[in-house]
Amino acid sequence: MSQLASLTSILRSALVGPRVMTHALKFDLGEEGAILIDGRKDPADVTNRDGDADCTVTVSSDNLVRLLRGDLNGISAMTSGKVRISGDMKVAMSLQALADRASSLLASPEAGLADLEHQDAAENVWTAMQKRPVDHDRPLPTPTRDIQELKKDFDAHGYCLIADALSPEQVAALKMRVTDQLDGEEEAGIGLKASMGDRRTSNLLVKGDIFQQVLLHPIANAILEHGLGDGFLISTVGVVQTVPGSLAQGLHIDQAYLGFPTPVPVVANCCWMLEDFTEANGATRMIPGSHLWDPDAVAARYEHIGTAGGGKGDNPLGTVPATGKAGTCMVFDGRVLHGTGKNLSADQTRTAIFTYYCRPWVRQFENPFLSIPDDVMMGLPLPIRESLGYKPWFLCGGYEIPGTPAPMDVVRPMNQVRRLEPGPVMRP
Predict the structure, then answer these.
(1) How many other CB atoms sit within 10 Å of the CB of residue 406?
(2) Radius of gyration for the chain, computed over Cα atoms and rounded to the nearest angstrom
(3) How confident is the model at residue 136 (pLDDT cuts 50, 70, 90)?
(4) CATH code 3.30.1050.10 region(s) in the chain
(5) Does 252 score more than 90 pLDDT?
(6) Which of 1, 201, 238, 249 is deepest in the core (most CB within 10 A)?
(7) 309-325, pLDDT tens digit by residue?
(8) In this structure, which CATH number among 3.30.1050.10, 3.40.50.720, 3.40.50.150, 3.40.50.300 belongs to the domain 3-122?
(9) What is the SS3 assignment for 383?
(10) pTM of structure
C-alpha cells in the first residue's frame, strides 16, 4: 500500500465516531496527491479528490505523518515552511483533534508507516548543511544596478551587491564624518568597541544630516521592499569599522532574537561600503544560500561560531567574503549566516554604514522617539519619518485610533481626547 493510501485509510478511521470537524479540509501533498476531508458529511467523507476546501494544508506526506504523530510542532512547521496553510484558519484548528485520534493508529504496524524515520531528529547535521536549495547554476553575486538581477541574487543567495550605490564624493564625505565621529567618541571616553576589537557607533541620524541620503536610495529601497514588503521600518543606523588585528565576528543571523525560524525574512540589512571590502581587511563573511537551510542545521553547526562562541576569531570555514569597491551597497536577508571578517592587514581599516530594517509589525532596535531629539526629528525628510514609525501599517502604529495616521507637522500631538464624563443634561 502506498503512503498516500495508508494516510487516507488512517484519516478515514480516525474520523469514525463523534464529529471533530464540520468543514472541508484538504491536505495538498504535491506530486504525491491529495487527501480531501469533507466534514460537512456525517460521517466525514475522506477521498483523494483534489477538490475545493475551506482550508488547504500544503505539506509532504512524510511531514504530515510527523505532524499527526506529534513529532513536528505545528507552529515551527509553519514558520520553517514545512507546512503552509491557506483559507479558513478556524478549520485548521481542528487539526489537533484529528491528530489526537490518528496518532495511535499511525503507531500500529498495520498502518504501514511505523518504520518511517524521524528525519527531524535523525538527519545528519552536516548533510543538512550541504543542502543548498538554491539555483546551482546561478553564480555568486557581483555588483550590478539591474534591479531584477539584484532581486534574483537576494532570493537565491540571501544577499546582493548594488554597484556604485554611492558616488566617490559621497563616499569621501561620509567616511570623513564617520571617522570624525568615531575619533570624537573615543576621545570622549564613550566609544563602542566590540569584543573582536572593531570600532562602532549607532544612532547616526542625530550625528549628521549627511547620513539621511543612504536611507533614501531608490535601488536599495526597492530590494528592501522586495524582501520585507511595503511599510518596512528603519530599525537602526550605525557604523562598524574593522582595524588591523580585529577578529572575525561569530557567525549569526540578524533575526535570531525572534526565537523562531520564518519562511520569509523579517529583517534585512544594508551594508554601505565606505572603503574597498577585501578579504585582507575583513570583508563580511557570508554563507550563500544559508537563509534557506533547515533552521535546526543552522543552529546546530554555525550559530555564534567565532569569538562569541569561544573560537579563535579566525574566518569560519565554509564562508566567502562579500568583496566590493567603496561605494558598493550589500543588501542581505536577515536569515543568512554572516559575520564581520578578520582584519589580516597591517594598515587598513574597513569602514561601513549599516542600515538595518524590519517588517512594520516588529519592534525596532533603536526607539526613535527616545533616541532622536524633537528638533532633529522634525528636520528629517518625510519618507524617513514615515519609516521611523510615523506612518501606520494596517492597524499598527496608529494615532489614538489603530491605523489612523498621526499629524506630520509636530513630533508629538497634544490634542488627544482625554478623560471625559457626560454633563448633567446628558445623564439619563
Answers:
(1) 18
(2) 26
(3) low
(4) 3-122
(5) no
(6) 249
(7) 345 678 887 789 999 99
(8) 3.30.1050.10
(9) helix
(10) 0.67
Q: Quick one: cell of 44? A: 466525514
Class in CATH terms, 127-366:
mainly beta
pLDDT score at 117:
38
Decide: helix, strand or coil at residue 307.
helix
Q: Average pLDDT for residues 362-378, to the nearest whole number?
A: 94
- Which residue has 531528529 as its cell numbers? 121
Output the DSSP codes for 200-238.
EE--GGGS-GGGGGGGG-HHHHHHHHHHH-TT-EEEEEE
d(CA 275, CA 352) in angstroms, rounded, equals 7
Q: Alpha-carbon torsion 305, 310, 315, 321, what sign?
A: positive
d(Cα 142, Cα 257) in Å, to the nearest integer? 30
Q: Which candidate, 332, 290, 319, 254, places its Cα nearest to that of 128? A: 290
Cell triple for 140: 555568486
The C-alpha cell at 279 is: 578579504
Give the closest residue to 357 by CA, choosing from 349, 366, 345: 366
Cβ-proximal residues to 380 (8 Å cutoff; 6+ apart), any chain: 205, 212, 372, 388
Q: Which of 227, 62, 252 is nearest to 152 (CA)?
A: 227
9 contact partners, CB below 8 Å, separation of at least 6: 1
State the residue for C-alpha cell 532596535: 365
Long-range contacts of 16-24 (CB under 8 A, 24+ apart): 16/43, 17/101, 19/44, 20/94, 20/97, 20/98, 20/101, 21/91, 21/94, 21/97, 21/98, 23/53, 23/54, 23/55, 23/88, 23/91, 23/94, 24/51, 24/52, 24/53, 24/54, 24/55, 24/91
d(CA 68, CA 98): 8
Nearest to residue 36, comparing CAs of 15, 67, 65, 19?
A: 15
Strand runs labelled E in 65-205: 84-87, 159-162, 192-193, 199-201
* Residue ranges of the chain assigned to CATH 2.60.120.620: 127-366
- CB neighbour class for 82 (10 Å; exposed up to 12, middle 13-18, buried from 19): buried
**Position with higher pLDDT, 87 vs 53:** 53
The model's pLDDT over 180-225, given as tens digits with 9 standing for 90+, comes to: 999 999 999 988 877 678 999 999 999 999 999 999 999 999 999 9
CA atoms within 13 A on the CB side of 53: 31
N-terminal to C-terminal alpha carbon distance within the chain:
74
Q: What number is the average pLDDT over the span 16-21?
A: 82
* Dist CA 275 CA 67 (whole Å): 50
